[in-house]
Amino acid sequence: MKYILVFLAVLYVEPATAQSLIPFAFLSEDDNRLIKENDSLKFYEASGGDTSYVVSLNEEASYYKLLNKEHKVVAEGGYIAEGDKYLQEGKWTERYETGKLKKEGYFHRNMPMGTWQEFYPGGKLKVVSNYAIVTVHGDMITCLSGTYQEYYANGKLKVSGFYSGDLVTRQDTLILTDPVADKKVMKFAERKELVPEKTGHWEYYTETGELDKKEDL
Q1: Is 0.85 topped by the overall pTM?
Q2: Alpha-carbon dihedral of residues 87, 149, 136, 9, nearest 10 degrees?
Q3: Handedness of CA 173, 2, 27, 30 (dihedral sign)
Q4: Chain segment 141-166, per-residue pLDDT in tens
Q5: Is residue 101 a contact partner of residue 116, using CB atoms and an 8 Å limit?
Q6: Smallest Cα–Cα separation from 84: which of 2, 147, 45, 29?
């Protein structure tokens, strides 16, 4: 019996410690309105609802830039095209509206990998985190893994520790419609995810640099 999928609920909330993705406000050439183009660049209205932002694509170099209303670059990096999808690939940076660096790191097929850094608006280092990509049954998934440090705005170390990835099974709820009986049917689908877990030795410091607490997990 065939069913029509009408709704998908994902029962997972991203951990607060997870690295948020750098804005990639481009879905496709069909979904983003073309504004203008020249020999090397195409300019599109950015996706995401804020029409004051513009996407610049250099298709020859596979390079993306997100420009604010003052025409300043607020995010940029490489990408790859896969069919009608565009995926973040290689080094990416995000900047505050002032132009100062906000985040930088590497993506592989939209997934953060390797070492990531986040900065305060004044330019000082805020967070250094690491991401691992793991292949599970042919599917690649990413997660915080390895060393992790947070810093106060005054430059003093705030938190130092380690993360490991815990492979868990999540269950999604699917609401399907039977086109013959015109009834809704609930189905369940399982997927694997890596969830960051604190592990090993953790240290917490005060703003003056004094050790406040230790944890061994």
Answers
A1: no
A2: -70
A3: negative
A4: 888 999 999 999 999 999 999 999 88
A5: no
A6: 29
